[in-house]
Specification:
Elements lengths: L2 E2 L5 H10 L6 H11 L13 H10 E2 L7 E4 L5 E15 L5 E17 L2 E5 L3 E3 L8 H4 L2 E4 L2 H9 L9 E4 L9 H12 L11 E5 L3 H10 L3 E5 L5 H7 L8 H8 L10 E7 L7 H11 L5 E6 L13 H13 L3 E4 L23
Parallel strand pairs: 1-2, 6-9, 9-10, 10-11, 11-12, 12-13, 13-14
Antiparallel strand pairs: 3-4, 4-5, 5-6, 7-8
Helix pairs in contact: 1-2, 5-6, 7-9, 10-11
């Protein structure tokens, strides 16, 4: 399998160019074609000599892979299906080198239009190993980490590539469980030589892997969203196994060490389950937990997935929950569901395991 150009830094592209006998300045040209012009083939890089393009194509793939399917929702949301090959496992060879075994899989990315914004909901893994009980992605198991190229391909290979204004790492997978590749993708998105996006245009959502979350907060200026869903230890643990290793109290204790009073934001995602986490007791505990932190709570309707025993809270209950938090000084909104009719809403992404295409 050829190495991919998409995702490489200018320094790495310089090594590629020199290694192929191309002038060093060709690395800047390749970077411009990859990130500014979003080229979808090496042959499109017309200011590189034909011989240079042939050498590049013989040794590398660009990394742009078109979606294999697309669905459009009645509300304008679009869901794209991408084929991926993920390193599932590796074994030691007789000379002690590592030989990776790859698995063919697929991931979904969702484009959400709203007024003058077009937001891409990005996947970072095929499947997920976190095992959250309410999430379709988690229920399919883990099929592998996406490469930097796989992540960035979701940006360049959709119809709306040139119109995207924002990105949320809220698709399939736990971004902090694939942090090395996610961080490198963020670097490409926010560097002057890359997409040149402001960090304010990017939000990463996590269930709270504390040591890696600290690295993310130290190493980026992007926004943060935390999957909360219940303020009580035992109840959250029933929904989210990660609670047993990294309790939400530890996550919030870490977050309170950082400044969110300026342009960087933190929000807490709270799926409302009828009769489970939607009463006054939960609202008051949530308010106490977040006191002193400049943040927002987003209330989310549970979107039904097969064989799940949960129901979403009625609208009136959600509104009362919102108002109770608001009255205690917590900024709280009810998030509008988008793309539910094409299984593109929160918690519904499943890649090739989704039979709706």
């Amino acid at each position: 399998m050829k190495e991919k150009l998409l995702g490489k830094t200018p320094e790495e592209l310089k090594e590629v160019a020199v290694g192929l006998g191309l002038p060093a300045f060709a690395s800047r040209q390749v970077a411009q074609w990859l990130y500014s012009k979003k080229a979808r083939s090496i042959d499109a890089m017309t200011n590189i000599s034909r011989n240079g393009r042939e050498r590049l194509a013989a040794a590398f793939d660009l990394g742009a892979v078109p979606p294999s399917a697309c669905q459009a929702s009645a509300d304008g949301t679009k869901k794209y299906l991408f084929p991926v090959r993920c390193p599932k496992s590796f074994r030691q060879t007789t000379d002690s080198s590592e030989l990776y075994e790859y698995e063919d899989s697929s991931v979904e990315a969702v484009m959400i239009p709203e007024d003058d914004r077009k937001t891409l909901c990005v996947s970072s893994q095929a499947g997920c190993r976190m095992g959250c009980k309410f999430c379709m992605t988690g229920r399919q198991g883990f099929h592998g980490n996406l490469s930097v190229s796989d992540i960035l391909n979701q940006f360049i290979s959709i119809e709306e590539s040139g119109e995207l204004t924002n990105a949320v790492f809220m698709g399939m997978g736990e971004p902090l469980d694939n942090y090395v590749n996610v961080k490198k993708a963020i670097d490409v998105l926010t560097s002057d030589w890359g997409f040149a996006w402001s960090p304010k245009r990017i939000t990463l959502s996590t269930i709270g892997i504390v040591p890696v979350l600290k690295k993310y907060l130290d190493e980026t200026r992007c926004h943060l969203a935390v999957s909360m869903h219940d303020p009580f230890d035992d109840e959250r643990g029933e929904l989210m196994p990660i609670q047993k290793k990294y309790p939400i109290e530890d996550v919030i204790r870490l977050i309170k060490q950082y400044d969110f009073t300026g342009q960087r934001r933190v929000s807490f995602e709270y799926i409302m389950f009828s009769g489970m986490n939607d009463d006054k007791r939960h609202a008051d505990a949530l308010s106490r937990m977040l006191r002193g932190l400049e943040c927002r709570v987003n209330l989310i309707r549970f979107h039904k997935i097969p064989d799940a025993p949960f129901l979403t809270s009625p609208d009136l209950i959600m509104e009362k929950f919102r108002d109770r938090l608001s009255n205690q000084g917590i900024t709280c909104t009810i998030r509008a569901s988008r793309g539910e009719d094409i299984s593109a809403a929160c918690g519904m992404l499943a890649g090739k395991h989704n039979q709706s295409y």
